[in-house]
């Protein structure tokens, strides 16, 4: 028998928030998580790098976990403007998102680089949330499974287990657009990713969490979570409002 993985709902704040509102949002989420009581779901927030320390302080002692949105592939050195996984771990981060489509598209990040970043996260003791997903053109061309398979093969670290790696399926066309795949379409991709995980990592692949991301809101969360093999969500816009974000957490239960 395989243990069911603990669900994860992660908030990706992207490049949003100054100190005052970031701290207020983190406090509100921590308070709401406390009030929610028995929720099995793990709650993670990933603020911009500038807010990591302030948010770490704001959620200290709560069940809310801290993560970052990106890291460099090296542990340190001459990389102006970059932040290493070790630095994030030093601030109290437990997770780091790697390979988000906004970094793949906006910063030209290749799957090979994403893989190195995931391995850097592991070396620093962080869990990596590895993102992948097809563009609108790839879906329209019927190339969704082919695209995510290629990204999976090239982006996932050589060694991974269910504690140190999370996979996030985020169709590019669903991010920030208000559009989502149907639960059936999500189940199809997640089922395929599950098979790839098991083929590559054996038993650990069975319990590794697969998140769905892209326009998850309080109003559609229950329907999206009902799809097979959806172990949680990576939430952008709807994670910037505590009540909305926590409604998504409660929908996962
Ligand atoms: P969204 O973003 O929820 O605003 O669509 C999701 C993401 O990019 O992780």
Task: Give the tags.
single chain; 253 residues; alpha/beta; 8-stranded parallel beta barrel; 11 helices; 15% strand; binds 2-phosphoglycolic acid
Provide a quick synopsis of the model.
With 253 residues, the protein is of the alpha/beta class. The protein has 11 helices and 8 strands.
What does this structure look like?
The chain is of the alpha/beta class. The protein is 44% helix and 15% strand. The chain has helices at residues 19-36, 52-59, 85-90, 101-106, 111-123, 136-140, 144-155, 183-201, 203-207, 218-225, 242-252, and strands at residues 8-12, 42-46, 64-68, 95-98, 127-132, 165-169, 210-213, 232-235. Strand 1 (8-12), helix 1 and strand 2 form a beta-alpha-beta unit. The protein is globular. The protein binds 2-phosphoglycolic acid. The site of 2-phosphoglycolic acid has 13 residues, from strand 8.
